[in-house]
What does this fold into?
Amino acid sequence: MAQYLIFLTISTSIFALFGLGLNLQWGFTGLINFGHVAFMTLGAYTTVLLTLKGVPLVLSAIIGAVIAALLGLAIGFSTLRLREDYLGIVTIGVGELIRLVVNNQDLPVGNEWRSGAFGVQSYPIPLATLAPNLFVKLLLIALLTLLAVISLWQLWRWVRFSRVSKGADSDKRVGSQQEFISRLVIGVFLALLTVAIYISGVIGLYDYSATAGLMLVSLIVLAFVFWRLEILVRSPWGRILKAIREDEEIPKALGKNVFWYKLQSLMLGGAIAGLAGAFIAWQLSAIYPNNFEPIETFNAWIIVILGGSGNNLGTILGAVLYFLYYEGTRNLDKILPLDSDRLGALRIMIIGLILMVLMIWRPQGILGKKEELTLGK
It folds into this structure.
């Protein structure tokens, strides 16, 4: 059970990271990106091919993120001065183009060239060869403990700051009370999940396994990216991105270079997705072109829409809920007499129905703000 929860934690953290990149581009800047998986593909293949050439893992992942950012630069220069729908068309085309190129071209795997259709296997993975003694195990557990404590403290602050103000009028008090209750429910849910992940992580790190080590690394990177993004979107830079999302003519009138800010957002979001690509390659231990189908982009859209666009914590919540649904419906064939193809179609239909209900009940997502809604603008 602990190993299964560790696997789910890695998957959730990867797609939370992937979704954070899309949320920066669309949720905060209003850029429509239907080919987000292209950045993940470049990040994954760049990382594994460089590590097979002897480049250190950390440096390979950073270079993969830089290459993904350069893709954002190329896409941005060709589309961001045009209407926004051109960006959506170009990105979905680029995402599929990169996958097809990887599938049909020979790749430099180690000291030989191999067809991309055969994938890439047997590459180094973080902490896979580590044989820790008791001191190192306790050090890793201490890092996980620190991460869990910080997460619980931030959740407590997030819930506490939504308390009802006594000086507010009646309508504001009712709204604040409803927000406090919803935040309390979500906060308790995430706190219990944090505790469960922590216990599983401690077990996995003490009886050391490579997946437990990868879980710790992925959570640390996710926490760091989330922390820096929260600082960025609350800075003047982030406020300009929100102004561009609402009406780009206003920041233009104030003398801001809108094109340059859009380009920065597209590049940074692409770099984050490239980093997620490195982690998905490490988790899978072997990557193939069909691991990067266009459906992965729309999984990221589901995560962002579900949690609430323009809200980084909402993206993480959306990733958690998506994987709870995804894993919870995996064994529906034991209840319903369906083959694997029909079961897959049914799962997609159910999540589509959930999104339709959400769009009617709460179009801004679970944690999104209605006044910052980008859908339909």
Notes: DSSP finds 13 helices and four strands in the chain. Residues 2-131+208-372 form a domain with the ABC transporter involved in vitamin B12 uptake, BtuC fold (CATH 1.10.3470). Residues 98 and 161 are 45 Å apart (CA to CA). The chain has two domains: 2-131+208-372, 132-207.
